[in-house]
UniProtKB/TrEMBL annotation:
Membrane topology, as annotated: Multi-pass membrane protein
Keyword RNA-binding: no
UniProt protein name: Probable membrane transporter protein
Membrane-spanning residues: 6-36, 48-66, 78-101, 108-126, 146-167, 179-202, 214-234, 246-263
Signal peptide location: none
Keywords: Cell membrane, Membrane, Transmembrane, Transmembrane helix
Pfam family, one: TauE
Localization annotation: Cell membrane; Membrane
Family statement: Belongs to the 4-toluene sulfonate uptake permease (TSUP) (TC 2.A.102) family.
Chief site of localization: membrane
Amino acid sequence: MDPLLILALLAMGAFGGFAAGLLGIGGGMVLVPFITMIFTARGVPDELVVHMAIATSLGTIMFTSLSSMRAHHKHGAILWHVVKMLAPGIVVGSMIGPWIGKQMNSSALAFFFGIFVAFSATQMLINKKPAAARELPAAPGMFATGGLIGILSGLVGAGGGFISVPFMTWCNVRIHNAVATSAALGFPIALAGTLANIFYGWDEPGLPEYSLGFIYVPALLIIVAASVTLAPLGARTAHRMPVRRLQQVFAVILYALAAYMFWKSAQ
């Protein structure tokens, strides 16, 4: 593999891992556009490039989430009873999301991803917290919420933090607990979504060598090597300093990445 490509993937992994630990976003919103750029440059067919970028990004979250989850757990910030209530719906939804994505062509999927990232950037930039108006719902409501988080996360290759964190905050969960719990939820999202992407892409024609379904294994391994190193640093930073200024910087970056995905969808 080209040394410059390895360095680019390592840099992406480091940035995505730090973002995952700091903001509980799973890193997917940052990784998918960059992976799309690299896969396009490497000659991956246009009809597969976005699907593979999303699947590969989701695969990295399996490892990133474990690393950031461990760091948050050391601070006692993860609400494990919330994880247990949301996880069943998340697993179901995370297997449905990639199936929906497979039915979409690359342009439509890129456009949908761009909308999701632009919305998430706006949410991060204005930092409008939902009013803490109620308690967490009972088991059926938590299953339905988990299903929605899983579907959207599996569809766009993200960790679900931009749904789960506002939802938990709205339900009177402290923001640091919400971010930590969201990091823990990234693992069932990524595990179920990764297995689904392997299954749905197994017999897809035109996949590059060393692909496992829609997942490009060499890129996955390189990104993971960097992301698992930086995710704990992001998690520690989240507990040591206000992250408002960093949120604003990330929002600007996300707008630029959303613009790229809109451009990609128009090709």
